[in-house]
Amino acid sequence: MLYHKEYEWNHEKEYRAVWDANSYDNDYWEIVSEEDGSTKTFLKCKAVSVTFGYLSYRNEQYANALELLKNINDNIKYRKDQIIVRRCELSDKKYMLIYDNQYNYLEELARL
Length: 112
Known about the structure:
alpha+beta
């Protein structure tokens, strides 16, 4: 099932996906069996953008994530359909997170 937040939080444009093992819709969920007999459950969706946190570069999987996003975007024909990749930073003016407009994930990947 897909749920959205209460009306006063609509500006966040966030939906919550809840998987119920006893009652789920195959249109929304993909269940993948692993070789060891376990399963993984994924929400079927189209990624539009990915935003990394300010300190994401400290995560050991950061470079792998950037490489994966590059490979996905390389295989998307039209630029308008590519996944937007951004990073947050702290604002100089207020105590809040903003998008780092200088961030370029391809340059960051080359740097790593």
